[in-house]
Input
Amino acid sequence: MSAAREHEVRPEVAELVAKYGMRRAGARPPIVTYTRELWQRRHFITTFSTANNAVGYSDSILGQAWQLLTPLLNVAVYYLIFGLLLKTSRKIDNFIAFLVIGIFIFTFIQTAMLGGARAINANLALTRVLHFPRAVLPISSTLIALQRLLFSMVIMLPIVLLSGEPLRWSWLLLIPAIALQSVFCLGLAFIMARIGAKIPDTSQVLPFVLRTWLYVSGVFFAIQTVANGRPHWVKQTLEANPGAVYMQLVREALLTKPPSHPPYQWTLAVFWAIVSLVVGYIYFWKAEEQYGRV
Output
């Protein structure tokens, strides 16, 4: 019997299926239904991400301390290279706080994208045994990245204060800035989760892409200084880069004299967050039936 014959549905069966609203096992549900199923699992997502974050450093001697030590070591290395050797600290007030904010905020994007790229393949046993919206996995990986960012702020904010920055009401803008960046990162995680599920080597190539993005996002330098004397579109492109946008919003909130930025930064932040989430969510949902196939 041919494969087409095996999967042929008799007319009376098709009629019953249509009458009672039945659908094929494992079939992708409509996006509204899919979103509703995700919401119903919100408590599981929170618990799952918290547990995975705790387990992530269980094999190391220092454990959760690496969530603080890793960005701090990066700050030390980048300060030595860019601040002291390459002198990118020129014309930047409070370069230490400027650099710390840049590294900690961009690390959030890096962690979310890398976690998204591994989200499906790292949980294949789960996807093959249990039925649940696969979007649970990239959402969970993004929550892990957010938890690590919030944990690292235990170090970032005191460093900013100790560097001479006063505690001001503008610090409250940190909340909407991080919220918008979280939405943006979630959209990226959805995109990377689908690509990573199809191409396992994505998680090996991605660090090189992220390192390039890091270098053009103004983590170590003021964009207007680098763009000075170059065509205007260069400065506009660098400032519109979402990696720089969210970083600049946090610097604007925490620093007394941050480098100048265009007045439409908040508009760009909202734009990138919405576009990333909508495109990423739909892109991931369309391949729902492919995740976890044996």
Remarks:
- Residues 81 and 87 are 8 Å apart (CA to CA).
- Confidence is low (pLDDT under 50) at residues 1-7.
- The longest helix spans residues 136-162.
